[in-house]
Write a structure and sequence with these properties.
4-stranded antiparallel β-sheet; single chain; 58% helix; 10 helices; alpha+beta
């Protein structure tokens, strides 16, 4: 009884029964009134024949004419009186007539020459009353049955989608899968669609939060690992110098080693802080027109020594005057990390190509280092913090945060980018607004 179906069913039933009851009472009253009126008209029409016959006959024949009329119409009770009120003829015992007047329909008919006829008839005969009651009972039963069926169908149609929505909401509260609702054009359909859309967005947000949580867990675990190793090494060197053990007595030599490791840790910490600021949106880009050729020419001299050492060939194919809209400092930092990454991963006597060209409404910049290839399974992980293809970490001076900073910086500026294997090497590309 607490369910919405029971409530809607009961309220609908009460309303329908009330309407049907009031309507039935009004119709019953109208039927009775119509029946009585019809009887009166029938009596008047029947007695009009008697009145016409009396008007045409002699006064001494009145009793005979009245008696013959009574014999022909035995269902009618009437009394004929003269001008002085004396009963000339009565079709029934006069006392019975008087006693039944309160339960009968009475009419006064003028017979002419001062004579009057008082006629009465029961509004309903017993057999008519029984038949009418039976008919009303059957009709009421049929109406009530139809009301119950209609109320149940109406309640089901109204409450079924709500019950389905409640069931889906319960499943949603448990983060269980739910099926798409059947399309409806009413407010319930709109509500159901909105609830399911909100649930879909909620699941997506939860999935994003879980992914972000896993990424943060990985980031802090990797950062702890990266910092723990040099700190442990520095502690060992300092302890050895304090104890004056063996070669550690050469304090200047190992103090320089400690300083070198401290600088490397400081570099990693600064890069971690930069990634955090980029992720939290604390660094807002300031867009301006940037000359890509001038920016590239300003970056390349920083790595010329390493390029010469590995006997690499650099080809810069950026047309003069080609410009993009970006934050010059952020783009310079990202491009610098990409170029040093290309220089470090290109085999000796290899080739690096830096190109730029318009593509629709964007400027696409390419950095291709030949002679290298990366496993397709590894490519998506290269932008993860502290990830290195060199799992043994034999190459010093590389924190594994360079491409992570590149990704966060370009995402902050709203630039699309990617890293993929090309026919003759590995290519990094980025699209910037023209």
């Amino acid at each position: 009884m607490k369910g919405i179906f029971a409530k809607v069913f009961i309220y609908t039933m009460l309303l329908i029964v009330l309407v049907v009851g009031v309507t039935a009472a009004m119709f019953a009253q109208q039927i009775m009134s119509f029946y009585n009126t019809a009887q009166l008209r029938q009596i008047s029409a029947s007695f009009q024949e008697l009145i016409d016959e009396l008007n045409m006959a002699h006064r001494r024949d009145y009793v005979r004419i009245a008696r013959e009329f009574s014999e022909r119409n035995q269902s009618y009770s009437f009394v004929m009186q003269d001008s002085r009120g004396r009963v000339v003829f009565a079709s029934v015992n006069i006392m019975d007539f008087v006693d039944q007047q309160s339960q009968r329909l009475n009419i006064m008919l003028s017979a002419g020459r001062g004579y009057t006829i008082s006629a009465s008839v029961s509004p309903f005969a017993d057999e008519d009353l029984s038949q009418l009651i039976s008919t009303l009972f059957v009709g009421a039963f049929v109406l009530i049955t139809l009301c119950i069926v209609a109320a149940a169908q109406f309640a089901r149609q109204m409450t079924q989608p709500i019950k389905l929505l409640v069931a889906d909401a319960v499943a949603m509260s448990r983060l269980e899968p739910v099926s798409q609702p059947e399309p409806r054009s009413d407010e319930i359909g709109t509500l159901s669609q909105i609830v399911h859309e909100m649930y879909g967005k909620l699941k997506d947000n939860i999935a994003d939060l879980e992914e972000e949580k896993d990424a943060q867990r990985y980031f802090f675990a990797a950062a702890s690992h990266e910092l723990k190793t040099p700190i442990a090494a520095t502690s060992a060197l300092l302890q050895g110098m304090l104890d004056n053990i063996g070669d550690y007595q050469d304090h200047p030599k190992y103090l320089w080693e400690c300083l070198k490791m401290a600088n490397e840790q400081n570099k990693i910490i600064n890069e971690i802080l930069e990634i955090v600021k980029l992720t939290d949106g604390k660094i807002a880009p300031s867009f301006e027109a940037v000359d890509l050729r001038a920016l590239t020419d300003d970056i390349l001299p920083r790595y010329q020594t390493l390029v010469d050492k590995k006997e690499l060939t650099l080809h810069v194919q950026i047309p003069d005057g080609i410009r993009c809209t970006a934050d010059v400092a952020m783009l310079g930092r990202a491009l610098s990390n990409v170029i040093i990454n290309a220089v470090q991963n290109t085999p000796e006597q290899g080739e690096i190509r830096i190109c730029a060209e318009p593509t629709g409404e964007c400027i696409r910049l390419y950095v291709l280092n030949t002679g290298a290839r990366i496993d397709e399974d590894v490519l998506p992980k290269l932008f993860d913090p502290f990830f290195r293809v060199d799992t043994a970490r034999t190459q010093s001076g590389r924190s594994g945060l360079g491409l992570t900073i590149v990704a966060k910086t370009l995402e902050c500026m709203g630039c699309a980018f990617g890293l993929e294997n090309a026919d003759d090497g590995v290519m990094f590309w980025v699209d910037m607004q023209a």
